[in-house]
């Protein structure tokens, strides 16, 4: 393959990647402020999660029949595992000044909290936990039970459709200016 064909292949690859660009954008504190200023209720937004999240809790053998998720025997322990797959749609079921509760399924206590982390420089809404363990797992209450977010999902972030952001058009105009009227009288 000659240099021209290699360059053409690269350009074609870049065009294909950009044409398949995501229709979603991260939900940030700036986006939330703009949405609320435009009179859009965050409870009316469609949210998505940007990566897989796995919630786990250990259960006794007598409690192994669990209503949601799946039960697995791992090293002699029964685990209740609930999976949240990347791009799963969710809705806001509660909002506060710095956080949102987002439900990806129906039921009492079936939501996860997202907010802007107090550490770092990002303002993207990220999954929150009540406590963080040394093993990099986050403790959450889900369906009234204590679960632990597994390490691969501890930085899960919220996404929204870009179309919502695109609808928030900024009104802008340029002042035309005024000139002195040289034709009129300036007094007698």
Brief overview, please?
This protein is of the alpha+beta class and 188 residues long. 17% of the residues lie in helices and 32% in strands.
Word description of this protein:
This protein is an alpha+beta fold and 188 residues long. It has one domain. Helix content is 17%, strand content 32%. It contains three helices and 13 strands; from the N terminus they run H-E-H-E-E-E-E-E-E-E-E-E-E-E-E-H. Strands 1-13-2-6-7-8-9 form a seven-stranded antiparallel sheet. It has a six-stranded antiparallel sheet with strand order 4-5-3-12-11-10, with no helix packed on it. The protein starts with a helix and ends in a 21-residue tail after the last helix. Residues 2-20 have low confidence and may be disordered.
Order of helices and strands: HEHEEEEEEEEEEEEH
Amount of beta strand:
25-35%
Rg estimate, integer Å = 25 Å
Low-confidence stretches: 2-20
Secondary structure tally: strands: 13
* Shape designation: elongated
Looking at how many chains there are and whether they match, the oligomeric state comes to: single chain
Structural class: alpha+beta
Distance between the termini: 86 Å
| Count of folded domains | 1
Biggest sheet, spatial arrangement of strands? 1-13-2-6-7-8-9
Q: How many DSSP H or I helices?
A: 3
Q: Work out the helicity level.
A: 10-25%
Biggest pleated-sheet summary: 7 strands, antiparallel
Average of per-residue pLDDT values = 81
